[in-house]
Design brief:
- The protein has 969 residues and is an alpha/beta fold.
- Helix content is 44%, strand content 13%.
- The radius of gyration is 30 Å and the shape is globular.
């Protein structure tokens, strides 16, 4: 069944579903657009989107869809690469609510999970028992178990652990008639008994399936290669004496039944790991070295080609790799070993290095034996897809249509050579990465489906590769499934008889064709429903920020839906998704919403849409997406521009004007202090601010200081010098100047002690960051121009510009080019802008700044939380290094994400609860777990406010701690 042309209207579907669901259903244009795509090259707008809370909701959705005569499509993280999770159907998102680990039984090494449980979530829980789920996809931080079951996912260690199908013991499912069933291995006699005893569809399945499989699943080399996720696994559901219908569901992409719960096997977590990273001069040379690794029982052998290596070197997020590589390799081979102790795995690394040297394979072997080094190399290896996608130019993208083939590893080298010949003959370039240990390389040719002839070229290449892989005894899909990209070829690959048997299985389980139709069997051509081809040409839009070539829409359309923003336990991106688990509150959701708006005939009017504003509203502008999104989607800038147009349509709210003018307000508050602080303490005044301006009464307001940084700086005795390092300008930001002058004083005194003559920026000069965050882009541009006027002469003379507040200082480096494109002064000033930590580390290291080993912070444990903008633009290495210069300090940097404050966001009444929820995810528990004697350090003023409010613990800026550790003059 495909949705008929006369499908019920979305309103009719919602009216039928809403009364029978405990969960929710949405039909607005934006929600349906967000669920129209996954990480593939396809897009199909769904009829409606539902969010079931339990299995009964899923049964109700299937039953209602049957009554309405429309299909259904279950979905997890939406990271499928072949188009499995898009369709003209009622799409239901199992990841939002059905994400509970029901049970872990360490004794039997089994877990029971709901389909929305994320792989890393299960592994964190299983780790307490020394266990792990064997199949480990590179998307483990957002891939759901339901999706892994649907795709029969494998991962880098499949040479040891196999695929998901090897670990599924039992499935609870909703069948296509909305009945619920338990699918598990049963003897033939039991299957026949169930067929007699049970009515409806379940009974019919038990009566018919054994005979169907007995005729179809004959041992004649099906599948040709074990690592196989295409078609229905007829070979695994029947062994002649035992029926296991659950194995048919694994890899069926939601076309046979809907999984509501799964019992899966776990494996023992490796006690020790080591990684050898072979450096090679070419991809074929790296592939040729695979055999030596497999001979030593490697747990994984992973390839990364030069295309992806070059991309990794350009990203702050993956900078750790460049510092440990030898020379300029054109390909890397990551070989991982598991063992019982560190000595065992280290010895195997040495044996591999020796074997490679004897065989003339490669020119260097990096030994990654420590957790830190392993984390650096593993992080880049797992980012292959995203880094490759980052090299997209407009709609010329590395597309997934021949990216999942696999052949026996001993035939991989000639296969890849012929594969490359096919691409060369068609004039296509591709990136190569993947799993040499199992003969699976993810080869993604760059194609622009909007260009004449490119769709035809893509189809021709797909056909040739399917024939090539068959000739090498391989499979067309080894872990990514069939979807819309490969289902078309299944008749050719499996032969007419077995393909008809698969169609018979589909008719048995889904006689009306309502479960995700058009996948696996009876599929449309692979060239239909191409997302980029259907996207209308963008109407030109004048923007206040300068975006790269292609404008604002292309900047949003860089998102290719790989879903890295849906991770929930590491990094910063995306804090609002982590707290809400709502697709629209992920970077991917916001980017797709903007693409929809900017594709309208009048994009300026579309940017004023209230529903779009609602989607963008919870973006904290943390900038994490700029570094953690492999494609570098800059949602902070996109939101600022969108807000500008929204204000143009609806007027600028008073609160936005107030926060955008925070320097002026802080300066005035400091002049009137301490009287100006009364409003922050009086209940009646706070109630007025809450109701009138939307500033939450629950959030403490920072106290204005009469002894401001500019006043202290002007009135203190002139320092005597000498100043051998010359002059430095300290950016007196709006917060350090008027509400936190202690941090600024510490910075001034440290810089002077280090040998700098310090000059402070003027009292009215604002970097423009507050105005930017509120979409007041004309004001931000004026402030940026004024700042350039003030700073350019000194910067041009080589004077560094330092700052203690990352969001302000880094605005000079990050946003000024977009605010003032073509202004040559931007490069001069941004090149001079440095966090004060950079200068202080240099001074400590050359002996200019001496720290006292007997000072109060010395020898203490320091818990450090970095500012989001610092993490995104420069990284936190220099701040951590500065703290580590405190004698005896035991510095621990938190991976606690965004604090949730985000400047004014946490002060706003409607955002206060979410702000605290974000802080409560990781930051608050980490701080609360520390003993009272631990020092808390945070670079951001908002972070320090949030820690004090949420944890009752004072946090200091790192320069304050270093100042307290100064040795006597």
């Amino acid at each position: 069944m495909t949705a008929p042309a006369d499908s019920p209207a979305p309103e009719e579907i919602r009216a039928a579903l809403a009364p029978v669901l405990e969960g929710s259903v949405r039909i607005d244009d934006y929600t349906r657009h967000l669920y129209s795509a996954d990480a593939s090259m396809y897009a199909i707008e769904p009829l409606a989107v539902a969010f079931p809370r339990h299995a009964a909701d899923i049964a109700a959705i299937v039953e209602t869809a049957g009554a309405l005569g429309v299909p259904v499509l279950p979905r997890g993280g939406g990271t499928s690469l072949a188009g499995q999770t898009v369709g003209r159907a009622i799409v239901f998102d199992c990841s939002r609510h059905l994400n509970r680990i029901v049970e872990i039984d360490p004794g039997s090494r089994r877990a029971v999970v709901q389909p929305g449980v994320v792989q890393d979530q299960l592994n964190r829980a299983a780790a307490a028992h020394g266990l792990v789920f064997g199949p480990d996809t590179s998307t483990s931080d957002r891939a759901t178990l339901g999706g892994m079951i649907g795709n029969n996912s494998a991962g880098s260690h499949s040479v040891l652990y196999g695929s998901t199908i090897d670990h599924v013991e039992r499935l609870e499912v909703v069948l296509s008639d909305a009945s619920r069933a338990r699918l598990e291995p049963v003897a033939l006699d039991e299957a026949r008994a169930r067929g007699r005893a049970r009515g409806g569809l379940e009974g019919r399945i038990y009566r018919v399936l054994p005979g169907l499989l007995e005729r179809a699943a004959k041992p004649d080399g099906f599948p040709p290669y074990w690592r196989h996720s295409g078609g229905y696994r007829l070979d695994r559901a029947w062994d002649g004496t035992r029926l296991d219908p659950a194995k048919l569901i694994v890899g069926s992409e939601g076309t046979l039944a809907v999984v509501t719960e799964a019992e899966v096997r776990l494996v023992e977590r490796p006690k020790a790991r080591a990684i050898a990273v072979g450096h090679f001069t070419s991809t074929p040379a790296a592939i040729a070295a695979t055999g030596d690794a497999l001979a030593l029982n490697a747990a994984s052998v992973e390839l990364m080609d030069d295309t992806i290596l070059r991309l990794s070197r350009q990203r702050v997020e993956y900078a750790g790799l460049s510092g440990i590589l030898e020379g300029e390799p054109r390909a890397l081979l990551f070989v991982e070993f598991f063992g019982d102790d560190d000595g065992e795995v280290a010895a195997r690394v040495e044996r591999l290095a020796a074997a490679w040297e004897r065989g003339g394979h490669g020119y260097h072997t990096l030994r990654a034996l420590t957790p830190g080094t392993q984390a650096a190399v593993r992080k880049v290896r797992r980012a292959g897809l995203g880094l490759l996608m980052a090299s997209s130019t407009g709609t010329r993208r590395p597309l997934a249509f021949v990216e999942d083939t696999a052949v026996p590893p001993d035939r991989l080298e000639p296969y890849v050579r012929e594969f490359a010949d096919v691409l060369d003959r068609h004039g296509l370039h591709a990136g190569f990465y993947g799993h040499c240990s199992v003969g699976c390389l993810h080869i993604r040719p760059f194609v622009d489906v909007r260009e004449p002839g490119q769709v035809e070229t893509m189809r021709a290449v797909a056909g040739e590769i399917s024939e090539l892989v068959a000739r090498y005894g391989g499979v067309n899909s080894s872990e990514h499934g069939d979807g819309l990209a490969r289902s078309e070829f299944n008749r050719r690959l499996f032969g007419a008889d077995r393909y008809e048997a698969m169609r018979a299985v589909k008719r048995l389980f889904d006689p009306e064709g309502r479960l995700n139709p058009g996948k696996v069997v009876d599929a449309p051509p692979m060239t239909g429903n191409l997302r980029d081809r259907a996207l209308p040409a963008a109407v030109p839009l004048a923007t206040r920020l300068a975006f790269p070539a292609g404008g604002m829409r292309d900047a949003a359309d860089r998102c290719q839906n790989i879903g890295a923003c849906r991770k929930d336990a590491t990094g910063v991106m995306c804090p609002s998704y982590m707290a809400t688990r709502e697709e629209e509150h992920s970077t991917r959701g916001r980017a797709n919403a903007l693409v929809k708006a900017l594709s309208q005939p009048d994009p300026k009017a579309a940017l004023g849409d209230e529903r779009l504003h609602e989607v963008l509203d919870l973006c904290l502008e943390c900038k994490a997406c700029k570094s953690e999104c492999p494609l570098g989607v800059d949602m902070a800038s996109l939101k600022s521009e969108a807000l500008y147009h929204y204000h143009a349509a609806h007027g600028t709210p008073l609160r936005a004007r107030a926060f955008g003018s925070i320097r002026r307000l802080n300066r005035l508050g400091a002049l009137l202090a301490p009287l100006s602080n009364l409003a922050g303490r009086a209940g009646a005044a706070r109630a007025v601010l809450d109701r009138g301006l939307g500033i939450s009464r629950h959030r403490p307001l920072p106290a204005f200081r009469r002894d401001t940084l500019p006043r202290w700086f002007a009135r203190r005795p002139a320092p005597e010098g000498p100043f051998p390092r010359g002059e430095v300008i300290l950016l007196a930001d709006s917060f350090t100047a008027y509400t936190g002058p202690g941090t600024g004083r510490a910075a001034v005194e440290l810089l002077e002690r280090a040998g700098w003559r310090v000059r402070l920026t003027g009292g009215r000069a604002c970097c423009g960051r507050p105005a930017l965050s509120k979409g007041l882009l004309d004001r931000a541009r004026e402030q940026a121009a004024a700042m350039l006027d003030a700073l350019t002469p000194a910067a041009a003379a080589g004077v560094p510009i330092a700052g203690v507040e990352p969001s302000c200082l880094l605005t000079l480096r990050d946003e000024y080019a977009a605010l003032l494109p073509g202004d040559d002064r931007v490069g001069v000033v941004s090149g001079a802008a440095r966090l004060v930590q950079d200068l202080l580390v240099e001074a400590v290291d050359d002996g200019s700044l001496r720290l006292d080993p007997d000072a109060e912070p010395a020898g203490r444990r320091i818990l450090f939380h970095g500012h989001c903008h610092e993490k995104a633009v420069t990284g936190t290495a220099s701040t951590r290094a500065l703290l580590e210069r405190i004698p005896g300090a035991d510095v621990h940097e938190l991976d606690a994400g965004c604090c949730g404050m985000a400047g004014s966001f946490g002060f706003e009444s409607e955002h206060y609860d979410l702000s605290m929820r974000i802080g409560g995810l990781r930051l608050f528990p980490a701080v609360a777990a520390e003993p009272p004697e631990t020092l808390i350090a945070a670079t951001g003023v908002s972070c320090r406010q949030q820690i004090e409010h949420g944890c009752g613990r004072a946090a200091a800026h790192p320069v304050e701690l270093v100042h307290r550790a100064l040795a006597p003059p």
